[in-house]
Design a protein that fits this description.
By secondary structure, this protein is mainly beta. It is built from 2 helices and 10 strands, in the order E-E-E-H-E-E-E-E-E-E-H-E.
């Protein structure tokens, strides 16, 4: 038996609050919270076997989260549920010319009934952001980390030059103006 109840715990530069952990007969239950932590530190604190998920992305800004992880003997992987908020965040793709700044959103993550990448869902509610020449706002759900599926209800404005750079093999050059 192991029981940990700590008001503060620092792991990899991330301050976790209200940490409650219990371990009994190869099963465990963990709850914790973060408040205005740097996203890059949270990414760095992610277990090494999942670090590859971030290789094509640069993410920074603030994250606050309520974390629940439960490991039962009936399943190979633990169940994970995280409700989180993003503030003053930035995203940049390393493989596509796509960047967002001033990101804010209420979010939810869980790895589904099968506790796998295939049943994982990320929910982004009231997502707001700005781009070089516009904005990118709305709600979306990203599912299945093995074969990404995006369901989105977005409103955006693009500078035509930025849109031209985003579209591979675009026949248009030197576009000016905006598209909403």
């Amino acid at each position: 038996k192991i029981f940990i109840n700590s008001p503060n715990l620092n792991i990899g530069g991330v301050d976790f609050k209200n940490v409650k952990f219990s371990y009994l007969n190869s099963e465990y239950h963990l709850t914790a919270e973060t408040e205005n932590e740097e996203i890059s530190n949270v990414v760095f604190a992610t277990p090494k076997e999942y670090q590859y998920l971030y290789e094509d992305h640069e993410i920074s800004g603030e994250i606050s989260a309520n974390i629940l992880i439960i490991k039962k003997n009936d399943f190979e992987n633990p169940y994970s549920k995280i409700d989180f908020t993003l503030n003053n965040s930035k995203y940049k793709s390393k493989i596509h010319p796509f960047e967002l700044e001033n990101i804010s959103s209420d979010c939810h993550f869980n790895n589904g009934s099968e506790r796998s990448f295939a049943t994982t869902k990320f929910y982004f509610y009231d997502f707001k952001s700005s781009k070089k020449e516009g904005y990118f706002n709305g709600n979306f759900i990203l599912t299945n980390l093995n074969k990404h599926y995006l369901n989105a209800d977005m409103v955006s404005s693009w500078g035509l030059s930025e849109l031209n750079d985003f579209i591979e093999d675009s026949p248009f050059e030197n576009l000016k103006g905006t598209l909403s």
